[in-house]
Amino acid sequence: MSSLQLKRTSTRRVLTTPAPGTIVAPAYYTEGQKGQIEQLGWYTNSIALPEYDPYYPWEQRWLNRPDTLPRYMRAAKWNLADAQKRIKGTLEWRRDFKPDLIPPAEVKIESETGKIIQNGFDREGRPVIYMRPGRQNTETSPRQLRHLVWCLERAIDVMPPGQDSLVILVDYKSTTLRTNPSISVARKVLHILQQHYVETLGCALVVNLPTILSFFYKGISPFLDPVTRNKMRFNPELLELIPASQLDADFGGDYAYKFEAESYWDQIIETCGVAPDGTRVGNVDNTRGDWPSPRSSTTLSEVHTPEKPKWNQWEAAGLVLTITRH
Predict the structure, then answer these.
(1) Nearest-angstrom CA–CA distance, 264 and 272
(2) By CB atoms within 10 Å of each CB, which of 71, 236, 289, 290 scores lowest?
(3) Is 98 exposed, middle or buried (0-12, 13-18, 19+ CB in 10 A)?
(4) Given this model, what pLDDT does residue 212 score?
(5) Would you call 2 helix, strand, or coil by DSSP?
(6) Cα–Cα nearest to 91, from 63, 50, 64
């Protein structure tokens, strides 16, 4: 079948696994770096929520993920004091925002036009989030930020083992001054990405940016940290980064995805195992913690939480650390 024929065959199936043969590059750390990660683990243990706090299991779930501590050490350029400051700020934000407990119904209306969807993976196995500001369907509100965070969490859910970053592809086709987010909203988005999802953005790809909106990037430029700025690429050759089988046909790929709100929503909910109250019926894979598979019927209340956490284990591409908790 030719590429043109593939593009004419539309589908509503969301791609939630990388292309066959995709290899996730392993992360290697020196003995000294492993020691620093271990020290950061001891620090988070000292400031963690008490067991009786309702959010305690969710905080532990996040802290126990194999990528959490290494990401904060990398973001801090292996400065332990800076990493401690960063992760303390994120813990405080997560306790207030509760990004892993957003009920789907709270943000579903924001998904009705497909302005932000996760579909497919790049050549490194990183989930691709498509953002289309031209499909904006609601007025500016805190719910828009909640929806963005909900989408980030879902992309994290489908990351293959060993992968801890994602790709954001922003398409400005049909975007107008009215539908484009304001600079104040963009600042809030950048703050969340840069401060609380450190080292999660693999790259940001911007396509079809009209001249009239070039001022927007000039306006947010002062709020971009150097690391984020270096990850931005304008009008790149997308097929060099994303396999044709995983790239939406709208951008030159072979995957002719046809967005339909209910179908998309149901697939993401099922794949990620999100319960109506925002809790989980499991997790995408057991490399992120001792949690059941997403399609099981187990809820958080049914998952055994020991009286006191005995250990945290980071097992990411050759890094294994064990921290005993007293």
Answers:
(1) 12
(2) 290
(3) middle
(4) 61
(5) coil
(6) 63
b/e 130-152 (16+ beta carbons within 10 angstroms → b): bbbbbbbeeeeeebbbbbbbbbb
The first and second tokens of residue 235, run together, are 């009008």
- Tens of pLDDT along the chain (326 residues) come to 444 444 458 999 999 999 999 999 989 999 999 999 999 999 999 999 999 999 999 999 999 999 999 999 999 999 999 999 999 999 999 999 999 999 999 999 999 999 999 999 999 999 999 999 888 888 889 999 999 999 999 999 999 999 999 999 999 887 765 666 666 777 888 899 999 999 999 999 999 877 665 656 666 566 677 887 788 888 899 999 999 999 999 999 999 999 999 999 999 999 999 999 999 885 433 334 333 333 232 233 333 333 333 333 333 333 444 333 33
CATH topology classification for 104-272: Phosphatidylinositol Transfer Protein Sec14p (3.40.525)
Contact criterion met (CB below 8 Å) for 87 and 40: yes
For the chain, what are the domain ranges? Answer: 31-101+281-324, 104-272
Dihedral sign (CA 190, 235, 208, 119): negative
Taken in order 215, 187, 106, 156, is the CA torsion positive or negative? positive
18, 58 in Cβ contact below 8 A? no
Cα dihedral: 116, 119, 122, 123 (round 10): 180
CA distance 320 to 326: 20
d(CA 27, CA 74): 11
Strands (E), the chain: 116-121, 127-131, 166-171, 201-207, 232-234, 311-316, 319-324
DSSP for 133-159, written as a single string:
GGG--S-S-HHHHHHHHHHHHHHHHTP
What does DSSP say about strands 201-207 and 166-171: parallel, antiparallel, or unpaired? Answer: parallel
Report whether 111 contacts 263 (CB < 8 A).
no
Rounded to two decimals, the pTM is 0.83
